[in-house]
Amino acid sequence: MGILDKVAKYREEEEKLKWEGTFAEYLELVKEKPWIAQSAHSRVYNMIKDAGVEEVDGVKRYKFFSHQLYGLETALERLVEEYFHPAAKRLDVRKRILLLMGPVSGGKSTLVTMLKRGLEQYSRTDRGAVFAIKGCPMHEDPLHLIPPHLREDFYEEYGIRIEGNLSPLNMLRLEQEYGGRIEDVLVERIIFSEDRRVGIGTFSPSDPKSQDIADLTGSIDFSTIAEYGSESDPRAYRFDGELNKANRGMMEFQEMLKCDEKFLWHLLSLTQEGNFKAGRFALISADELIVAHTNETEYRAFISNKKNEALHSRIIVMPIPYNLKVSEEEKIYEKMIRESDVADVHIAPHTLKIAAMFTILTRLKEPKRGDIDLIKKMRLYDGQNVEGFSAIDVEELKKEYSDEGMSGIDPRYVINRISSTIIRKEVKSINALDVLRSLKEGLEQHPSITPESKEKYLNFISLARKEYDELAKKEVQKAFVYSYEESAKTLMDNYLDNVEAYCNKTKLRDPLTGEEINPDEKLMRSIEEQIGISENAKKAFREEILIRISAYARKGKRFDYNSHGRLREAIQKKLFADLKDVVKITTSTKTPDEQQLKKINEVVARLIDEHGYNSTSANELLRYVGSLLNR
Ligand SMILES: Nc1ncnc2c1ncn2[C@@H]1O[C@H](COP(=O)(O)OP(=O)(O)OP(=O)(O)O)[C@@H](O)[C@H]1O
Ligand SMILES: [Mg+2]
Q1: What is the phi-psi region of residue 335: left when phi exceeds 0, alpha when psi lies from -120 to 50, beta otherwise?
Q2: Residues 6+ apart with CB under 8 A from 546
Q3: Nearest atom in ligand 1 to 411's CA
Q4: What radius of gyration do the chain's Cα atoms show?
Q5: How far is the CA of 403 from the centre of ligand 1 (A)?
Q6: Atom of ligand 1 nearest to the CA of 110
Q7: How far apart are the C-alpha atoms of 430 and 422, rounded to whole Å?
């Protein structure tokens, strides 16, 4: 389907969504689908819930957010359970302003935008449909037409509570246009749209001297005063402030805490009573979610000012910290790169992961427990297995600091450095070393990084570099060994046979000659030495392995290559040590002979076909590992 056909189809759908009827007809509809009369907060909550929830490791993952926000599950769970859910149930929190507090470019605006775009979409669905008094600039809730003294009866009949009073404008229209007959008042379905200023608004403070409260609550329309005779005629008022337009949906309040006080006072009554004052009218009821965002410093300054106490108590603060998982951070970069105009550049495997490691390290706080270093903590947070630690340790670590993730390097900085790397390098291919170098250079120029943290960050760059060295060596090693898992398994089986014979004081049989032979001490030691097992400790280590094997056997499980972390490490290192010489010679000779050249080409091909490299990055990797091995 071409783009114009799609446009036409959209228009057709739009047409189908239209509904118009009298208030009497609307009430029929409410009987049938009571949810159409829900409050703004309840609609937001249901929108999030309807997208689906899954539970991962005891934390809820709301699908509504999960396709664009990564690693924020805990914060989002809290946001939904402590704000949206109770607000949907008409508890008092809904009257508070939701203030998202978090470090720079930690996803606050992204979150708010998702809610806005989500609501626009949701209002097009049956579950999210919204109806309003026709022709009302504030899309007033039709149920406001029910006079206050009949609302108890309405509740009895419909089970729906009505909040808020009919606005002065619709009061007048009811009298003049409909002769007071509420059943005849026309109602229409509305579709939220920020562009058309329906149900979604954004208020952004500008120069306090020139900015007018009208931007928030509307203003008198001087051109019509003459027609209606008085300033207090609601028809002579333009209800076109952001608060008016966002009624029934949500309003984003940008830079709220930077805003002039007079704007904030307006919010006071809105948040307290659910209504605000405009012009010379009685209070106007509003039903909308107000979301603001700020960073920690600004927030602290705000609450330390006594004058702000009243407002402060009407704000619900929800922390939105940085993501602390390496793998999720990688996804953030992938997303940002996909959305940028450098999307066609080849990024060598592990590049983003290594950058993410550096970033996460800057965000983590030093563990208070002595047995865990920062690298281990980083791995544990990422959900990786670290020998000797369990999920309980992770929970404990998370409890050590309540404000972890509120500082450190932000994703935008990393993406900027990646972009500048891409621009500087002539080939359209970058690797982890390029990025680390660029991150390092960036620190020198970064004005807001103190010398102290610069020192720390430089150290994190070298930690990330070390991680990369290991990964790079492993990658090359894997590509050199034709079938890596296979060779590892064979070596391990061989080792285990020998260990068994050693512990049971028996002999092995030579597979070729059938002769009885002693366990191969040299082989066993060559593996054990890889992980620093001394001559004195070897017996205990071998026995432990044997015990582990029989424990597995008792449970009917197979002891395999992955069953014992340290043994696996030893086997890998041994394989690599054997290979090292081959790799070293092949990758570092300036003029490889034919045999070596063939091997190198094979390895490059494998790196490209199976590991996601291109020929530039594969050759760069080989050269780098060659130089590492020659150190
Ligand atoms: N946890 C995250 N998941 C996905 N993307 C993220 C995350 N954190 C940041 N980003 C990305 O980083 C960029 C900056 O985020 P955003 O503008 O939402 O941050 P912010 O908190 O509003 O920052 P600021 O305080 O500077 O206004 C966006 O492209 C956003 O998608
Ligand atoms: Mg922002």
Answers
A1: alpha
A2: 499, 500, 503
A3: 12
A4: 33
A5: 18
A6: 18
A7: 7
- Provide block-wise average pLDDT over 10 residues at a time, the chain (631 residues): 90 92 97 95 97 90 95 96 92 86 94 97 96 95 96 95 90 94 97 96 79 76 74 77 92 86 74 69 82 91 86 90 97 92 88 97 94 94 90 92 93 92 83 95 84 92 96 86 74 91 90 85 93 93 92 88 87 80 70 77 90 93 86 73
Q: Can you list the alpha helix ranges (DSSP code H) found in 33-167? A: 40-50, 63-66, 73-79, 85-88, 108-122, 151-158
How far does residue 364's CA lie from ligand 1's centre (Å)?
18
Give me ligand 2 centre to Cα 102, in Å: 10
Alpha carbons 510 and 499: distance in angstroms, whole number: 15
Helix (H, G, I), strand (E, B) or coil at 203: strand
Distance in angstroms (rounded) separating the CA atoms of residues 570 and 413 = 38
* Closest CA relative to residue 279, chosen from 167, 192, 190: 167
What lies within 8 Å, CB to CB, of 615 at 6+ separation is: 604, 608
- Distance (Å) from CA 497 to ligand 1 centroid: 54
Kindly give the number of the ligand 1 atom that is closest to the alpha carbon of 295. 25
Q: What is the pLDDT of residues 202-260, one digit of tens each?
A: 998 777 666 777 787 777 777 777 777 777 777 777 888 888 899 999 999 988 888 77
Q: Which of 105, 108, 412 to mutate to test the pocket of ligand 1 (most atoms within 8 A of CB)?
A: 105
Residue type present at position 338: R
CA distances from 32 to 23, 29, 35, 403, 420 (A): 14, 5, 9, 48, 58
The two tokens of residue 540 are 């205990």
Residues in the chain: 631
Query: Model confidence over 601-618: pLDDT tens digits?
Result: 888 999 999 999 999 999
Q: 361 CA to middle of ligand 1, Å?
A: 18
Instruction: Answer whether 458's CB lies under 8 Å from 443's CB.
Output: yes
Name every residue whose Cβ is closer than 8 Å to that of residue 314 and which is 6 or more positions away in sequence: 95, 96, 97, 267, 268, 271, 272
User: Cα separation of 215 and 443, whole Å?
Assistant: 41
Distances from the Cα of 485 to the Cα of 492, 575, 608, angstroms: 10, 11, 19
Distance of CA 58 to the CA centre of its chain: 17
The residue nearest atom 29 of ligand 1, judged by CA position, is 336
Q: Which atom of ligand 1 is nearest to the CA of 70?
A: 3
In sequence order, what DSSP letters do the residues of 222-290 get, joined into one string? HHHHHHHS-TT-GGGEE--SHHHHTTTSEEEETTGGGS-HHHHHHHHHHHHHSEE--TTSS-EE---EE
Contact 93, 289 (CB under 8 A): no
Closest by CA to 216, choosing from 268, 253, 164, is 253
Mutate which of 110, 298, 299, 335 for ligand 1? The one with the most ligand atoms within 8 Å of its CB, which is: 110
Ligand 1 binding site (Cβ under 6 Å of any ligand atom): 69-72, 102, 104-110, 295, 323, 332, 335-336, 411-412
Distance 568 CA to ligand 1 centre (A): 39
Atom 19 of ligand 1 has which residue's CA nearest to it? 105
Which tokens go with 28? 């029929």
